[in-house]
Amino acid sequence: MEQTESAARACPLRRVNRYRDVHDGEWFQDAVGYVTAAGLVDSTGRGRFSPRRAADRSTLAVCLWRLAGKPACRADLSFTDVPGDTPFAPAVRWAVQKRLLSTLPDGRFCPGAPVTREQVVLALYRYARLLGCDTPPNSEAVLGYQDYAGITGSAAPAMSWAVGAGLIWGSDRRLRPQRKASRAELAAMLQRFRRNITQN
Question: Among 17, 29, 61, 146, which is most buried by a count of CB atoms within 10 Å?
Answer without folding.
Answer: 61
